[in-house]
UniProtKB/TrEMBL annotation:
Pfam families named among the record's database cross-references: PMM
Pathway: Nucleotide-sugar biosynthesis; GDP-alpha-D-mannose biosynthesis; alpha-D-mannose 1-phosphate from D-fructose 6-phosphate: step 2/2
Secretion signal, residue range per the UniProt entry: 1-22
Catalytic activity: alpha-D-mannose 1-phosphate = D-mannose 6-phosphate
Cofactor: Mg(2+)
Name listed for the protein in its UniProt record: Phosphomannomutase
Protein localization: Cytoplasm
Single GO MF descriptor: phosphomannomutase activity
Native species: Diaphorina citri
Family that this chain belongs to: Belongs to the eukaryotic PMM family.
Record keywords, A-Z: Cytoplasm, Isomerase, Magnesium, Metal-binding, Signal
Gene3D superfamilies named in the record: 3.30.1240.20
Complex formation: Homodimer.
GO cellular component: cytosol
Length: 213
C-alpha cells in the first residue's frame, strides 16, 4: 500500500472511530513507516499528521533511535512541541507535551559488568567475520538499547542496502543472535533484527515507562 493510500485509509478510520480526542492516541513508528530507514520525512506526511490527524487524536512517535535522530528525521527539535508524546529509544525515554517525563537506562538494568561482557563478546565475534565490506562504529550505546552493526554504522545508504541483501542469504545477524542466546543466556537482553537496516539488533531490557501518560 503506497503512502497516499495509507494516509487516506488512516484518516477515514480515525474519522469513523474517534468521538473524543482526549481519549484517543495514534502511535507511529519512524523508520519504515513515516520515513524510509534513517531518511527524513516528506513534508506531505508531516502535514497529514499535524493538520489532518492531530485535531482528531493525540499523536505519538515511537522509535528505537535516540532523540537527536528522531528530530533529524521529523523536522528538528520542534517535533517535541508538535507531537503530544515522543518515545525514542524504544520508549525508555519519554516526552509529553515537549517535556521529558520518564527515562530509564540500560546500565541501571544490566550493570557495567554485564554491559562490558556483552560488548566484548560482540566485538570478538565480529572480528572473526569476513564480509564484503566493513566500515566503522560497530556498536552504538544508547540510553535504552545497544545497537550492533556487523558492517558498521558509518556505512552509506547504498552499503546498508547491499548488506541487507547479503544478510538475507548469509544470515550474519541471526548467527550472532544464536551465539548470544547460547553463550550469554542470562545477560538479560532481548534481540531483534532491524528492518531494512544493517544493524544486528536492538537490545533492550523488558521494562518500559512506568509513569502513566
Amino acid at each position: 500500500m503506497n503512502r497516499l493510500k495509507l494516509r487516506s485509509v488512516v484518516f477515514q478510520l480515525c474519522c469513523s472511530i474517534m468521538t473524543c480526542r482526549a481519549n484517543t492516541i495514534c502511535l507511529f513508528d519512524v523508520d519504515g513507516t513515516l520515513t524510509q530507514p534513517r531518511q527524513k520525512a516528506q513534508n506531505e506526511t508531516l502535514d497529514f499528521l499535524l493538520k489532518k490527524l492531530k485535531p482528531l487524536s493525540h499523536l505519538a512517535i515511537v522509535s528505537g533511535s535516540d532523540m537527536n535522530k528522531v528530530a533529524e528525521q521529523l523536522g528538528g527539535e520542534k517535533v517535541l512541541e508538535q507531537f503530544d508524546f515522543v518515545f525514542p529509544e524504544n520508549g525508555l525515554v519519554a516526552y509529553k507535551n515537549g517535556k521529558l517525563f520518564e527515562k530509564k537506562s540500560i546500565i541501571d538494568h544490566m550493570g557495567e559488568d554485564k554491559i562490558q561482557t556483552f560488548i566484548n563478546y560482540c566485538l570478538q565475534h565480529l572480528s572473526t567475520v569476513t564480509l564484503p565490506f566493513k566500515r566503522g562504529n560497530f556498536i552504538e550505546f544508547r540510553t535504552g538499547l545497544i545497537n550492533v552493526s556487523p558492517v558498521g554504522r558509518s556505512c552509506t545508504q547504498a552499503e546498508r542496502d547491499a548488506f541487507e541483501k547479503y544478510d538475507k542469504e548469509h544470515k550474519v545477524r541471526q548467527a550472532l543472535i544464536d551465539k548470544l542466546n547460547r553463550d550469554l543466556p542470562d545477560i538479560g537482553l532481548t534481540y531483534s533484527i532491524g528492518k531494512d537496516s544493517p544493524f544486528l539488533c536492538s537490545l533492550l531490557p523488558p521494562t518500559l515507562c512506568s509513569q502513566p501518560f
